[in-house]
Every structure is written in C-alpha cells, then in structure tokens.
Design brief:
five-stranded parallel β-sheet, mainly alpha, Arc Repressor Mutant, subunit A, 931 residues
Amino acid sequence: MNAPMPLQNQLLATKFFLPIASGTLISRPRLTALLAESLKQPLTLVSAPAGFGKTMLLSAWAQSLPPSNIQVAWVSLDEEDNEPRLFWTYVLSALDQQQPDRFTSLLMQLRSPQPPPFKYVLVALINLLVESTEHFVLILDDYHLITEQEVHTTLLYLVEHLPPQLHIILATRADPPLPLPLLQTRQQLLEVRTDELRCTAEETRAFFHEVMHIHLLDEMIQEVTTRTEGWLVGLQLLALSLQGHADPTTLLEEVSGDQRYILDYLTEDVLRRQPPEVQTFLLYTSILEQLNASLCDAVMELHESQQMLQRLEQANLFVVSLDNKRQWYRYHALFAQALRYQLEQTQGDLVPILHHRASLWYAQHDQTTQAILHAFSAKEWEWAADLIERLPVMSLTWGAGEHELALLRQWLEQLPVDIVGSRPSLCLACSQILWAIAPPTTLDAWSNGAQATLSASLTRLKTHGDTPSSEALQQQENMLGEAIAWHAFLQSHREDGQTALALCQQAKGLLSAENALGYAFVGTAQLIAYYSSSANDAVTAIQSGLQAANGLAAVPGMTSLAIADMGYTIMYMIGAGQLYKAQQLIQRAVQLGTPSGERMLPDVGWPILLQAEIQREWNELDTAQSLVEEAISLSKQTVSIASLMYSLLGLSVLLRICLSRRALDAARSALQEFERVSMRMSQPMALHYRSLFTTIDQVRFWLASGEWDRAMYWAQELDTVEGHGTSFAREREEVARARICLAMAQPAIALQRLEPVLQRATTGQRWGHVIEIRLLQALAHQMRQEEALALDVLSEAVRLAEPEGYIRSFVDEGASMAMLLYRLRKRDRKSRPTPYLDTVLAAFQQEIMGQIQAGEQTKTQALPDPLSERELQVLQLLAQGASNQEIAQELVIVIDTVKRHVSHIFSKLGVQNRVQAVRQARELGLLGEEG
C-alpha cells in the first residue's frame, strides 16, 4: 500500500516569502554586523521571547545581502511541520526555488510513495551542495514550533556535516534540543540572544524620531528604554499610544509591570484610538493565523478587506506583509493574542461564528487542516466530522505518520461520541488507524458505534415497505461484517479470545466473498486468538494467518498489509518451533516487498527482523546483528502505526542478541528503549507485545546484571495485582518467575510453576516454548541432584530442537547446561552417534573461548603462567566431569597429550587433583560466567 499523503497535501507558498516590513526600519548596524558573522559558522541561533524583532531583523538583513553572491531560502514554520517528511519537503523546496531544478530530484524522492531514509536524502543534499558554486543561507523562522525529535535529529546531522556552501539560521523563542555547548566548542555555532536584541537608548531614539516621528527628550528616551527593557513590541505600542497623548509623561507613568501587562494595557489603549471600522476589523480578523483579502472578506462578510489591510500596513498597526504583492499578511503574534483576548472579553458570542466562516473559506480553498482547526474552535462538530472524513489519511486501513496520528487523535477525542458513532465509516477508519495507541474504551466506543449504526440501518433496509435490492442488502451486510471482523481483531489482543473467535464466525456470515480486507481481519484475529487465548491451538492459528496473508497478497494495493500478516504468522511459527517453515515464509515476504526494479518496501523490515531472530537461534550472531540494523533502518521509513510494532520487535531481537553476547550495557539500552516505545501504545497492546517479546528476556537481563532485587520485586508485584492479559501473557510470566526461582536456588518451586505451563504449551503444540520449559526443568532437576530425571527431560528438549537446528536456547543457559549436555551425550553415545549434541557442545566451547579471547576473564592474568587456549579447553571439559578418554575424543587428540595438558594445568593452578583444579579455576573466573 502506498504511504499516506501528508495532512497538508500542498505546500503553502506564503511560507517561503520573506516578511516585508511596513514603513521605515531603524538601522541596527551592531546586529547586522553580528549576523554577518553567521556566514562564517554552519549554524546561527537567534533565540529570544516574542516581540524582540527576530523575524524582521532577519528579513531585513537577508534582503540586504547581495543576491549575486548568496541565495536566501526562507521557511516560516508552523506546527504541522513536525511531520519530518513535510519539514524536509519545505526545506528542499525553499532551496530549489533559489536555484531551480538543482534539488528537484531529492524532492521527488522525498515525496515518493516509498521515500528513502532521511539520512540518504541528507547525504545526497550535502553532496549536491558541495558541487555547487552558489552559497545558500537557509533561515527557519519560528523553529520553537518544532517538537518532533526526528526533525531535530536529522537537522543536527545536516549541521554536523554541513559544507561551506550552506549556512543555517534558526529563529526561535526557545532553545531547540540540540547540543548547543558542543557545537559552540566545535566553533559550529553563533548565538544572538535577548540581550543583543534589546533596543539600546540610541536605537530607541531613532525609532521614535525616524519611524514614529515623535520627539522625546533624552531623559525620556532613557526612561522609555529602561521601562520597556528594550522590548521592541513594547516600544511600538507605546509610540502608538503616545500619538494620542498630549503629555507623554502621564502615559509613561501608567506603563508599569511585566511585559504581559504592558501588552494588554497598550493594546487596549491603541484600539480605543482607532476608528470603529478599524477596531472591528482588527478584532474580528485576530482569529486568523494569516490574512488575505478574500479570507478576511469571508470572515467580515464585507468586500473591502484589501483596502483595510493596506490601511493597517500604512498605519504600522502590527501587520506584516508576507509577500511582495501585498496579498498575504499576518499580525504580530503578541498583538494578535492581545486582540483575541479583547474579542473574547467584549464579543465572546461572536467568536464561534467567525471561526465557522473561516472554516468554510478554508474548506472551499482545499486547505482542510485549517478548516478543521477553525471548525473545532467554532464547536461545529458535524462539520468538523465531515472535514475529517475528507482527509486522504481516512481512506487508509493501515495508518499514517506518527505526527499525523497524534493530530488526528487529538481531533477525534474532541468530537462528541454520538457524532462519531453516527458515522460508521468514520468510526471504522478511526479505529483502524489508531488501534495501537487509542485507549480500549475509545476503540470499543467507535467499534460498537459503527456496528450499532450499521445494524440499525440493515434492519430498516430489511423492514422497509419496498423489497430492497440484493445488491444494497449485500453491501450493508458486507460493511457490518467488516466492522465485526475489526472488532474481533481488537478483542484478540485482550484476555477474552473466545469472544474474538465468536465475532469472527459472525463476521464470516456477513462478509462478501470479494472482501479480502474483511477476511484478513478475521484471519489475523483468529491467528492471535488461537495462539494467545484459552483456545491454545498454534496449528489452527498459523493456518488462519497464512490464509489472511495469502488473500491480501492477491489483491493489488494490499502488499503492506499482506507482509504485516506474514510477519504476525512468522512470529507464531517461531514460537511453535517451526524455524525452517518460518524462514520460507520470510523469503516469500521479502520477495513480495521487493518489486522488480523497485526499492524494497519499508514493511519488509518486519520479516527481516524475524530472520535475525532465527539466525540468532542458529548461533549466527554477527549475521543476526547485521540483519537487525538493516531492518530497523527500513522500519524507520514506515509511515504507519505499524512502525511502533516494528520498533518493539527490533528492540526485542536486539536485546536477545545482546544477552547472547553478554553485552549487558547494550542490552540495558535496548530494554529501556523498548519500554519507552511501548509507553506510546495503549495498555492492552503494550502488554500483548511485552508478552510476545520481553517478559522473559527482561528477567534474564536483570539476573545476568545482578539486579536480583528488581526481579524479585517484579515477581512480588504479580502476586499483588489481579491477573490480566491473555492466557499466553500469564504463561510467559510463569516461565519468567521459574527462572527467578532457579536463580534463588528454589528448584522445587520452579518445577511446580513449570509443570502447568508445560502442559499448556504441549497442548497448544507450541514446541519452541516447550523446548525452553524443558531446559529449565532439566536445570531444576540437576539442582535437586536428580540427574536421571534431568537427562530424560533434556533428551526430550533435544528431540524437539534437533530438526530445527536450535543452538542458542541451550548455550544461553550457561555452564550448567553444558555439563548436562555433555553427560547426555556420554549416555547416548553408548547406543548411537550424537552429531547434533556434538554441534551444540562445540558452540559452548566456541562461546567460552570467545569470552576468554575477548578479555572478559581478566583474572586469568593473575596466574604467573597463564593457561594456553588448549589447556583452557581441557579445563572446561574437566569441569564437566569428562574422563581423559572422553577429553581425547572430544578434542581429537591422544590420551598421552590429554595427560600432559592436565599435568600442566595442575602445575599452573598450584593444585593436586581435578576437584581442586575446578575449584581454583572457578575462583579465578576461568570457567565462563557460570562455570
């Protein structure tokens, strides 16, 4: 499926215009000289509160630059530009306007249905700039409106690699989350702050004399400067107020307090001195972010707005022209804020009416986002719902970019429930787009509202006097079936999976045969419910997932959804111990997501992550690491809510790789990031994916890093809260608690916890989980010195694991598992060859030697004569109880060589026998983490 278009599906030309000052500007050479220094730095930060003249200063300076030498690209940012792709589209468009066609290829890539990673685009931009003979200044005004971290991150990457052909200037009311001290240290940053922007006494005098034509005594100039603290907007308002006062001293005595008070006082004073028609125009149009004659005419219900705008500009009433043609304007932000306050206080009942008029105008001019914002301000809920249904994103079934989702969710939460509920298409679209992040109560309200409305409509259709056409009846039933199918998908993530399965049967009785999407919802719901709920049937679950994926794969435009269903199915195949079948489905998904001659779809990141998990299990850790990095890079390009799932899966696989490598710092980072991402999901969804991905591994991490208190607290918390989540989630918790019991040397309790979950996993034919449980049982029996039982249980795990090539599940359990496997091989070799056990034990030896070579066992250096690599291998086998003959067979050497190695080991360790050697080796840390 193609990526969604941005909510703002067209670029606003006015955002590229340098604001044009109305009237005369005072000369401020000290500031222009400071800005000239910006050409020597990659980044200039102009940071000060509102009203200090940042925008006009930069605009005037930019217009003063010689065009033959420097091209100025200007972007006036707003909140919608938090969508990273839209932000960089504006940046590249601004540059492209200065040198047409040079950056067009990058724009086309960025705006394509499947854009490349931002880093790729930025590298290409840097290379284009390096080749340019032109120099550019990129000015980003109102950067404080940018809150999206990915925008900050990508901008920082550009700054750190910026060629001399480009300089960036940020105008902002607050410092951005960039490493400013570090950039300063590297001499990559010039700062212009509030103290530099304050008007000096000389500039205050020039402003009053040259701009406002008001002559004040020197002591009065000093008093004004002190009273306003050089605040430019305060000076402007004060000058306008002084024009109507015979005695400036009287007004000056009234102006006191903070800037907020000064603004309110002076704005009211200025308003009172304007003609009634000017007052009315200022107040009514203050609700608008930008103004042009047509829009103002619509809001005012007049036809003279162009003349009024020009009149305001000539009077210097805080109107800024946004283009050379004097078509678009805006009020100074603080002035507009004060006007809106005045409007609320004096004519509050009129405010919704004005917003409604503005909304109608924006809708007529295809600026839907602005139309929606004004509709909400007008509390026109039905109209707002109409507008939301027009958005391109609402035609999707798989979601949109994260910023768009946040904005959409904000809008929908403002709509009354009955408004949304009366619109089945809106209900379903909202639920399908926000299913992973919206609260369950909200999702249920939308889903139930859609079903209720559709059921009532279907009943009316059937009981109508005229016989309805079969086509109309089928269409209505089909819509209801799709709504019920979607409800089943939502329920499948929760505790009551049987409800989901019942809904699936109900949906199948209504869906038309051609509704591939509806049947896909059914298949995915059955996949999750059969696997995770009390239904407990992995075979049926996987069959359902495959049917859903196959149905979508055959429908044009459903590729992303088909790959997602394959991803779900592959996850459960791995849990069922079907590694080779899972790998085959991964290859099919990758092929589906890589059309001939086209770039790989970002959604392919999901199956690649699962391939990484299989490679990790097969002990190909380097390959797994490489695949994870590739997949995470792909997943970041996914403009859908699925990106949250992809991130969680990627972090969980990365966590397991780090645990296998014993890279605990990296594992901690992966786990912390997993928790951070999952917090953005609703509670049931987060719980569902934690049970799939990290319930076990977070406990493994805590135990490996010595955070036993944290593991114990987690287990105690489970006892104090009411059971929640799916049956599968509770099963995973029990397995994790059994691991804690083993760590606390409580094997009997561990066995008690493991027996019920073993029965459940066996009944569900989830053999991957059975293997894990069997390994823990073997370790518990060994701890109870029940070796025969331990070997029997371990033999069952080996029988299940051998056909699929499991390795890491054994190796990650440590030295105790190695000893058990060695004894199992010793027992089994009496009756048959043991190639699989040989392979697994060889992986143990490779693991231990890798740790030693990596320098993890630093105590080795305490020996006067360190052990050789071969002696360390012999020592490991000694610790596992191997005889000299068995060591010779394992290492393919003669017995005399074994005896010589053993003698050297005793000598170097200063011991007399094997027991002493093993004890001393453990104290020195020579036997691995659990040796």
